[in-house]
Amino acid sequence: MRTMNKLIYTLFLCLCILISKSQISESRKHFVFNKQATINFENITPDFAPVMLVKEMPKPASEKMVQYNYPETKEQSKISQSNSILPSLALGYSAMGNPWGGSTPNDNDIAISDSGYVMSVVNTNIYIKNINTGVTSPIKSLAAFTSPVNSKHQESDPKVLYDPKSDRFIFMCFTGFVDTTSKLIFGFSQTNNPNGAWNLYTLPGNPLLNNLWSDYPMLALTEKELFLSINLLRNDSSWQTGFVETIIWQMKKDSGYAGLPLGTYVHHNIKYAGKAIRNLCPAKGGSKLYKPNMYFISNRNFASMNDTVFLVNVTDTLGSPTNTVTVKAMVSSQPYYFPPSGRQPNVAGTAISTQSLACNDSRTLGAFFENNTIQYVHNTRNPANNQVTAYYGIVTNPQNVSPVATGYIIANDTMDFGYPNISYAGAGLGDNTSVISFNHSSPKVYAGCSAIRADAIGNFSPILRIKNGLKTIDLLSSNLERWGDYSGSQRRYNNQGEVWLSGYYSYQYSASYKYVHAAWIAQIGLAANNLVSLKETAKDETSLLLFPNPAQDIFSVDFTIAKPEYMTFELYDAQGKLVVVLMRDWIKINQNTFQFSLKDVNAGAYFLKITGNNNTNITKKIIKQ
Questions:
Q1: pLDDT at 379
Q2: 570: Cβ–Cβ under 8 A, 6 or more apart, which residues?
Q3: Which end of the chain is more exposed for a tag (fewer CB within 10 A), N or C?
Q4: Can you spell out the DSSP letters for 46-114?
């Protein structure tokens, strides 16, 4: 028996060495893009804020959850031991940020500058606050901000970054849901004030000219470059089964700030053992930006249970002869599990609701690099109670031939935790302290957000409950609501121990929309003395956050189509003169709600005309009081 155990152990070590072996696996394509437009954020007007709410949750594919046979190295239901012994986190500023704008999910992200500007984005709008003066800028829609270049297509999946080296902001979103309309939009701020001028660029969503479109972006910076990972999908397929590959865009960020031609590489054909690696999460700089490499973390996100962690490394800068992509696979000490949906109360708050919160899969959602260590997070099932919670992973010595991957499942009792993100909060060399933020919900607690402190060796603080929501989310026609697809987190680079986050908050937007969600913005510190005090204006900011006034300015129309249709939404005045083309895009099947704002037009009668290439022809009369 002892000889047999020794043999099994030896075979396991050989498997670990084999799976950790580095592979060079990629192809590369070069592009240069000119600046397309300049827009000044504070001068944007009018803002019609058009948005399409698809009222049916994307159908899960039959291949959604997979039981992999390789590697089978972990027993079922293993949970690494962890301890709640770290000091509690401190909560500073905490308030609602971006309001609901007629779409789901939030897809919220956040950035904060050294000089105190907070920029928060969700799927429909942009929120900017100066924490030194307490002034919140009037909220603008993604449609208005990208109007010079968006071709009237629907914007999705916004991302925002602060660059502490250049003291600038970067914005990104995409438009289009088929290859012919798929486009990536980038904005680079010209100064450190996000209220000012931005340089806008567009990149193709089908860069390989193979009839695919781009979805689910993830951004990070090195000292000199900007990296974007994004998935390429087939037309007319679900996001699960339509996946073809994840590509990496690498570009010179300083050219964007200056409005110069933007040199880029597209790294594609990134595979391990002949299969495309899906959802590459970049590891942002922890205490600062690093150079020249960028690491990415991935896993087998549809596995029912697995322990494989992929490490992708883009080596060196754009144009360097040593610029390439390497791939390693590791076995983590802690398996991860396909996440169930989150639970929430019913409308009365007394029993389990029929409306659950979708968790999608176990893809890596946030990561950073510091002290030669990568820390990352994603959704997982907790095998101890079969509820969704956060997985916390660590990769040490990523440059080595065989990096070491360890992991922990964050304990949850009665609560469900989903869509975590992570930022470095430590003091530098030898200090691996991080702040993990996540959404929370339960059968008795409305959807909100929380945070916890971690140290990369299995110790945690008590969970900080930042904000509970006020309502059950109930927007879609099915019983599965949107809870993600991601949340935002960033370290305040010039103030050690301070992290800002954008989480989930359920509330009532209006009498017509009682069960919706917003972004909740919070300032977290390792201790109260880590938090920079904020100045608040005495003025009530509620009027600024009503984007626009839902009782007076919002008009919406419901319609159903049997197959995808390219549709145009136009607003005419009472004399039949075209006021504005609100949207032109491919619209998904079944139930949809189109919504826009009338706050920037004069009182009177207007007509909304909806036409489509499948002979749809709808006209609605609107009275603006």
A1: 98
A2: 578, 580, 581, 582, 608, 609, 610, 611
A3: N
A4: -----EEEE-SPPPPPTTSSB---S---S-TT-----EE-SPPPEEEEEEE-SPP-S-SS---EEEE-T
Residue 204 in 3-state DSSP?
strand
pLDDT surpassing 80 at residue 62:
no
Where is average pLDDT lowest: 77-81, 299-303, 433-437, 450-454?
77-81
Q: How many whole angstroms separate alpha carbon 292 and alpha carbon 252?
A: 12
Q: Give the pLDDT of residue 530.
A: 85
Rounded to 5°, angle at Cα 256 from 248 and 502: 70
The domain defined by 554-624 folds into: Immunoglobulin-like (2.60.40)
For the chain, which residues make up each domain, given as ranges? 23-38+86-545, 554-624
Q: What is the DSSP letter of 303?
A: B
What single DSSP character describes residue 345? B
Bridge-based pairing of strands 284-285 and 364-370 is parallel
Tell me which of 511 and 558 has the higher pLDDT. 558
Tell me the residue type at 52: M
Looking up tokens 């059950």 gives 472
In a 10 Å sphere around its CB, with 0-12 CB exposed, 13-18 middle and 19+ buried, how is residue 90 labelled? Answer: middle
At 525, list the tokens.
Answer: 């510190």
Is residue 74 pLDDT above 80, yes or no? no
pLDDT higher than 50, residue 90: yes
CATH, range 23-38+86-545: 2.120.10.10
pTM of the model: 0.93
156's tokens: 């999705």
Integer-rounded Cα Rg, in Å, for the chain is 24
